[in-house]
């Protein structure tokens, strides 16, 4: 009998273990999310929108400036979660007050689920390509980007990101390579394109191999080359405040930004980029031909890969703060189009329940990878109405090219 009782005890323990293991598996990705429970506070200084009324539809038709804001990995779930935590159940983020909304499909040429390179290529060049490729078709042909189109028309151009400036999304607008991993080559392309403003991380790809911080495989010092070419080079928030154009290279970390003080915030980077690009003291008779600026909230995606709700909120609010800066400028200027979109959704984030005060929310993550879900698009400014509806991500670039006066787009280049 004693042996039998011992055997039953072991069997019971095994059964209990299997039940617990099964319940863990079934609940994977589900969590009860409370303010700050994952140890990351919301960004200092973020103020939720004081109103919920939509910004007005402008009557002006001429688009002089374009500010394209890309939230990497930002789906509707991420927007809803950040809004609930920062503005409450009935509040709105700044992007949610933009008067025109739409839905964008995101698949790549070789997958139902895109990566940032293929999605960035669609948004930048208006073509589908294979995951990993940047502003090239699957056949290796290079395609002009809307940034390059703007530059050709005499407009100033800029790229801002919280990742390395050589990362997939900014790289899609200013380079043409077969693999997003070729970040040393991407750095060369960004400078060769004479993009007026480059702000983000990634200093390692600009330093010669002999430097201990270098990520290059050769001895080229792209920072020295940039300064010789007329760029002002900065590394700190203090230097950012006093920096001037017309060419500005700001590399604030060896790798990606940490998105914490003493680094400049994405909002501060947005403001400086607009200041440099909107310089009216140039051109014939002192007239500017306008500018094109792409600003990416890069690390929303990374927080979602980690299924980290608090960091997701933090990074999305950093992004929304930058959007507020863009909208403030556009409301004054009247000729600036602001478009906010995502390259893809990451994590399959959903809000399953919680209390009406939004102090506690039940959320669910479907995956730690990207998904094939469509993403939201928001627009404000002249001709913003053409961004409503449901359409493919390649149409975003085509619409921007149309507003810049080019009918034949996409177009190949040598």
Core attributes:
single chain; 414 residues; alpha/beta; Alkaline Phosphatase, subunit A; 10-stranded mixed β-sheet; 3-stranded antiparallel β-sheet; 12 helices; 20% strand; globular; disordered N terminus
Textual characterization of the structure:
This protein is of the alpha/beta class. The chain has a single domain (65-406), classed as Alkaline Phosphatase, subunit A. Helices cover 33% and strands 20% of the residues. It has helices at residues 2-26, 76-87, 116-125, 146-152, 168-174, 183-192, 222-228, 237-242, 266-277, 299-305, 309-333, 394-403, and strands at 30-34, 65-71, 100-105, 142-143, 156-164, 197-201, 232-234, 248-251, 291-297, 336-342, 345-346, 350-354, 360-364, 370-371, 375-380, 389-392, 412-413. The strands form four sheets. The protein has a ten-stranded mixed sheet, with helices on both faces. The longest helix is centred in the first third of the chain and has 25 residues, at 2-26. The radius of gyration is 23 Å and the shape is globular. Residues 1-30 and 35-41 have low confidence and may be disordered.
């Amino acid at each position: 009998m004693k042996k039998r009782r011992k055997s039953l005890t072991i069997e019971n323990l095994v059964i209990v273990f299997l039940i617990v293991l099964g319940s863990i598996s079934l609940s994977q990705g589900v969590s009860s999310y409370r303010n700050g429970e994952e140890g990351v506070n919301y960004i200092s200084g973020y103020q939720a929108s004081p109103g919920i009324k939509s910004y007005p539809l402008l009557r002006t038709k001429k688009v002089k400036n374009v500010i394209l804001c890309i939230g990497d990995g930002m789906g509707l779930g991420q927007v809803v979660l950040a809004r609930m935590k920062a503005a409450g159940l009935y509040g709105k983020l700044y992007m949610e007050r933009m008067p025109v909304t739409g839905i964008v499909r995101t698949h790549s040429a070789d997958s139902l689920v895109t990566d940032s390179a293929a999605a960035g290529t669609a948004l930048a060049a208006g073509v589908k390509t294979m995951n990993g490729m940047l502003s090239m078709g699957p056949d290796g042909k290079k395609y002009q980007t809307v940034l390059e189109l703007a530059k050709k028309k005499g407009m100033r151009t800029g790229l801002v990101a919280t990742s390395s400036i050589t990362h997939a999304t900014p790289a899609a607008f200013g380079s043409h390579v077969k693999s997003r991993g070729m970040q040393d080559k991407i750095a060369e392309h960004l400078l060769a394109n004479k993009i007026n403003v480059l702000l983000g991380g990634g200093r390692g790809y600009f330093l010669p191999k002999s430097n201990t911080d270098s990520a290059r495989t050769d001895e080229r010092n792209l920072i020295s080359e940039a300064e010789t070419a007329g760029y002002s080079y900065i590394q700190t928030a203090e230097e950012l405040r006093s920096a001037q154009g017309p060419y500005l290279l700001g590399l604030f970390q060896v790798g990606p930004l940490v998105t914490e003080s003493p680094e400049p915030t994405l909002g501060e980077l947005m403001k400086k980029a607009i200041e440099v690009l909107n310089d009216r003291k140039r051109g014939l008779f002192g007239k500017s031909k306008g500018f094109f600026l792409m600003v990416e909230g890069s690390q929303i995606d990374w927080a979602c890969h980690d299924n980290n709700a608090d960091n997701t909120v933090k990074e999305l609010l950093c992004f929304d703060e930058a959007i507020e800066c863009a909208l403030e400028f556009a409301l004054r200027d009247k000729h600036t189009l602001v478009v906010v979109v995502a390259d893809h959704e990451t994590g399959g984030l959903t809000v399953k329940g919680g209390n009406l005060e939004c102090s506690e929310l039940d959320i669910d993550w479907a995956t730690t990878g990207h998904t094939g879900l469509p993403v939201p698009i928001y627009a404000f400014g002249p001709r913003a109405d053409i961004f409503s509806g449901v359409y493919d991500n390649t149409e975003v670039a085509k619409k921007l090219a149309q507003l810049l006066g080019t009918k034949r787009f996409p177009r190949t280049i040598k």
